[in-house]
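In response to the reviewer comment on reproducibility (Comment 2.3), we provide here a single inverse folding case reported in full, input and output, so that an independent group could reproduce the run without further information from us. The structure tokens appear first.
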């Protein structure tokens, strides 16, 4: 008897959620001590995520149409099976993500999802709410930046 894919994912997902310990708190302000913001995380990591992007990203006010078009293609290939813009699907809705998260956080989530799932309190909370976690799609930094640019075009109020 074969086990369906959703059934095979249920036990690992439940184990991951149990290991996360809830993590339902929102991070404290940027100047708070690491213990109050997510254990061993620095204030930067709480605000901007854990991963290869280690400085805030300064983005131009206007989006780059060519980069956004490339990002849309990457998104449709690697992200759209789980993410929609205006509704929760397998993962959270991403249409307004650039108003909720910093550009560095968004890129670190795309580039380093496993560590973000394991260590970041906001991501732990999302995993608990969504009952799913984001797999590593193997994006390069250039691809992640392109997807970020595409996401910037999807937000009604982003000033990124």
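Designed residues, in position order:
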């Amino acid at each position: 008897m074969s086990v369906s894919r959703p059934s095979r994912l249920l036990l690992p997902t439940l184990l991951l959620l149990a290991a996360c310990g809830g993590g339902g708190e929102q991070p404290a302000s940027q100047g708070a001590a690491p213990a109050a913001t997510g254990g061993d995380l620095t204030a930067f990591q709480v605000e901007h995520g854990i991963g290869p992007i280690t400085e805030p990203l300064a983005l131009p006010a206007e989006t780059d149409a060519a980069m956004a078009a490339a990002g849309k293609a990457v998104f449709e290939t690697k992200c759209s099976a789980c993410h929609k813009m205006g509704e929760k699907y397998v993962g959270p809705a991403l249409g307004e993500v650039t108003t909720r998260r910093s550009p560095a956080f968004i890129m670190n989530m795309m580039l380093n999802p496993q560590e973000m799932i394991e260590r970041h309190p906001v991501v732990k909370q999302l995993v608990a709410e969504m009952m799913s976690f984001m797999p590593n799609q193997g994006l390069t930094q250039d691809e992640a930046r392109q997807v970020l640019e595409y996401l910037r075009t999807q937000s009604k109020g982003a000033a990124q």
